[in-house]
Amino acid sequence: MTTTPSNPKAARVPRGFVDRTADEIRAAEAMMRTIRETYELYGFEPVETPLVEYTDALGKFLPDQDRPNEGVFSFQDDDEQWLSLRYDLTAPLARYVAENFERLAKPYRSYRAGWVFRNEKPGPGRFRQFMQFDADTVGAPSVAADAEMCMMMADTLEALGIARGQYVIRVNNRKVLDGVMEAIGLAGEENADKRLTVLRAIDKLDKIGPDGVRDLLGAGRWENPDDKSGDYTKGAGLDAAAADTVLAFVAAGAESAAATIANLAALVASGGRGSEGAGELATIGELIDAAGYGDRVRIDPSVVRGLEYYTGPVYEAELLFDVTNDEGQTVRFGSVGGGGRYDGLVGRFMKENVPATGFSIGVSRLAAALKSLGKIGGEASRGPVVVLVMDRSAIASYQAMVAELRAAGIRAEMYLGSSGMKPQMKYADRRNAPLAIIEGSNEREAGEVQIKDLDLGKELSKGIADNETWRASRPAQVTVKRADLVAEVQRMLAAAVPPASE
């Protein structure tokens, strides 16, 4: 006997988190298989790190310094050590490499997929838990490793069905931006926070445009500038001349990589890190052109990436086709991932500096892009064959059928509820079952079973006029000898997909 609670709790998912359905999970896993195959084609191998790291392993490289808990979910263990849920997959990799440095072959090429957590204000398309898929090369100082990352990004998108011309891989170099920062007086550790504010302002260029970026470089910006409503973001406090220099850097892009690099070199003509960065971009451009990727990888000064641990080339994968957003507006889909060189991150744990570069794909965002293109998430996936329970005194017979079907590699389940035949058929339909197996007392005595073709019923209900021959050759229900159950189910499943219409 069961009782109903007098005051049941409300069932609700926490803000910023989402549940995932079976079809969403299967679509994402299929997508990640393709990503994995591409990464392995380039010689990368898997590694897995825990969801929890010591908070001090994350160091100063946290996504949000302005919140008391610095943007991460943290707690203390029994030893009063602070632990945090990882906010990305890069900081844990840096810790892993440092801890296992002597036994790893260098350069160390690895990939990993997993959940990351951000204790930030949730909003449309902004979640507190999401999945990333990363690839990194640790121990390679040459920008050839960065160029390879850009090429692998391009190959990954095409392997997933995103056609050439529907995407671009954009590349820049933080060293050039460092040269710009020096030119406007923001060099040195004492200006670290202000530099980070400048980075975040530039990173919003595609969302708020040059005027919005200028506001964030200056005093600040309202979420709705026209009526000064919504959230207010404090700016970097730059004067007009400094803001002009930063915006000139962002606008230095030209028709060709050579022209863009020349523009950037002119901005940092005094030499130092800025000139070094421009030279690295020139090398990346040469390598990209030599490998035949010049039409897909573009030097673009507007790419800065928001995290401060990047030390050299940074890159971003942007999808160029239009979609309709939540407000009904037509917008470019935008970024689905990015990364860059982070030569100082592994070295935090060691006595030596260790060069590294890597790229992270936002799995949910890329899945949404593929769905909008019709590459995944079409028809619901086929469910299991359902064996109906018509006589509960003979349940062992139904269980034997299910076992035989599973032994033959066929997804199958026995109905475990307590309802009659009609609700059981509704259940099979909701499970998207292709077939239902029916054995009543009469069929059992005759040594037979009935197999109902539920896929065919769905096709007939659509009233589709094509593929008449295919439908005519498939009776909606057949009766076969019990011994022939598995063979007939295999035959009907093989025939369940109609031929393409001409």
TrEMBL record:
This is Histidine--tRNA ligase. It comes from Methylobrevis pamukkalensis. It catalyses: tRNA(His) + L-histidine + ATP = L-histidyl-tRNA(His) + AMP + diphosphate + H(+). Its main location: cytoplasm. InterPro entries: aa-tRNA-synth_II (IPR006195), aa-tRNA-synth_II/BPL/LPL (IPR045864), Anticodon-bd (IPR004154), Anticodon-bd_dom_sf (IPR036621), His-tRNA-ligase (IPR015807), HisRS-like_core (IPR041715), HisRS/HisZ (IPR004516), HisRS_anticodon (IPR033656). Its EC number is 6.1.1.21. SUPFAM superfamilies: Class II aaRS ABD-related, Class II aaRS and biotin synthetases. Keywords: Aminoacyl-tRNA synthetase, ATP-binding, Cytoplasm, Ligase, Nucleotide-binding, Protein biosynthesis. One of its GO terms (cellular component) is cytoplasm. It is an enzyme of class 6 (ligase). L-histidine binds at D88, L89, T90, R118, Q132, D136, R305, Y309, Y310. NCBIfam families: hisS.
